[in-house]
């Protein structure tokens, strides 16, 4: 009987230097006071952190299943790339070189600052390549700085010029403090002014017809909140904050603070640790309290300061989120890395962040800058590029798009360790770009050979390596499968489709009402009912099966979900072809005409079965159509998928979640 498949994944634990697990608790008033090297003085005060494990878990080699992966917009990925670095004149060339789309700066607070931001946007606008750098307008609430109405006016000007990305709440209020309505907060004191400013800022944005559609980012580091005003929530739920504090601040249940959570989950971690395998992957984890990383969990799950409860780990996965600061300093000594390591880790960070749901990632900082900016920069202080800037330039030279087209799927699979990750992107003209990256420790000499099956043949596959240059490093003609030698950074595969074969598919409809009563509706030309001995194959077609198992639930049921037996439509059979992974139905229409083909699937014994049907060109292996079952919440009552088919295709029936993939019948008309 088709039943739930349990997949066992074995993990090998590789323990580092200190043999026994140990507990290390460190506390300091400032990061700079705790760390034996110069950290960014703009950063938050340190907090007691428990480093629970001095170990790194590395998964045993595994195979990524050949499920059809959904592509994401290439333009959306490129639009996630941001940098902090000021909008002052003379920096345009560096922004263009990076290919970056967004800027974060507190300097857009004066008329001159707004003008500079608009000029930067206009000067970085390259038709077909870059829509122009947009600003995350960082607000500040301190004496001498603009008020909320002035910030709103600045945002209006930026929006009118097409140069506004978002409005951002105050930066690290526990470090820099907030003065609002005559009261000081943050900076180690109660956060009432922070809550009120955040509430009023978003309300002002929403009320302004010129900028009401622009998102508001939360104050960074809400995990430091003092006094539970509910800032860990985008919208305060019932019981989500301290009622006394809420009353004092005027932030009742239902108050909306922001649209996107905002973390400073520095990839370098909050300790001067060496680079670890999966360094960037761990830093970008949105739902797990990864030791040493200041991630979303500690800011919006359970706050790292006072331990206020917020979103559950499951909710954190889908909570809209941004990172407005991350990076790693270059140099020698503990806590610093080489330019090559910085560049590779930051490339991995941009990819990891996007794959794990971060809408925008801003790197700190554009330039090195002495004592205030340290060596965080992507460029040296003389504006010459570090390797990180060069690697980003190479990445955004290979990946170029500004439009949004329709999205497809690709049923690829690969084998490799848990340090290998993947991202399928699709350009607006339909071309796929598959990015794979390995997060071994840069420079340690480790590598992995990764067998990759793309699920279909491409006329050519061009390989780009952003750590080498902007050009194609290797081309594979007429290829479906290849092996990639991977170390510590991304490789980009530009997939050019094979020339069309003449085989075609047109999806007609879904049918959730006919159920098992197919006679007179489908199958006028032919039919094949699973486990029934009476089969009729049309003269114009051939049908074959591979990879399936057979099962009969009930031989003679009366339930109308069961398919009618063709030899006696008053009787029925509940049966299926099934697989724990996927199976194939090969259909070859040989008369050169288009014919209707229908598949019937029924979740007879459960109601949570989900599966994907890929219709694949038998000549080129191209995916011609993809449908997901069920259309609604359950496949329990059965569902038909109907296509018009011309030529030779293969139906790939792929298990998605829970129970096996199933099909109970195929019909021709």
Task: Walk me through the structure.
It is built from 14 helices and 40 strands. By secondary structure, it is an alpha+beta fold. The protein has 3 domains: about 10-60, no CATH class; about 75-375, Alpha-Beta Barrel (TIM Barrel), CATH 3.20.20; about 505-669, Jelly Rolls (Sandwich), CATH 2.60.120. The strands form 10 sheets. Strands 5, 7, 21, 22, 23, 24, 25 and 26 form an 8-stranded mixed β-sheet that branches. An 8-stranded parallel β-sheet has the order 16-13-12-9-8-19-18-17. Strands 27-37-34-40-28 form a 5-stranded antiparallel β-sheet, with no helix packed on it. The longest helix has 17 residues, at about 340-355. Mean pLDDT is about 90; it is low at about 1-65.
**What would you report as the Rg, rounded to the nearest angstrom?**
28 Å
N-to-C span: 31 Å
Mean pLDDT: 88
Shape: globular
> Which residue ranges are poorly predicted, with pLDDT under 50 across at least 5 consecutive positions?
1-63
Portion in beta strands:
25-35%
What does the oligomeric state look like here? single chain
Biggest sheet character: 8 strands, mixed
CATH topology of the largest domain: TIM Barrel
| Name given to the CATH architecture of the largest domain | Alpha-Beta Barrel
Task: Tell me the number of structural domains.
Answer: 3
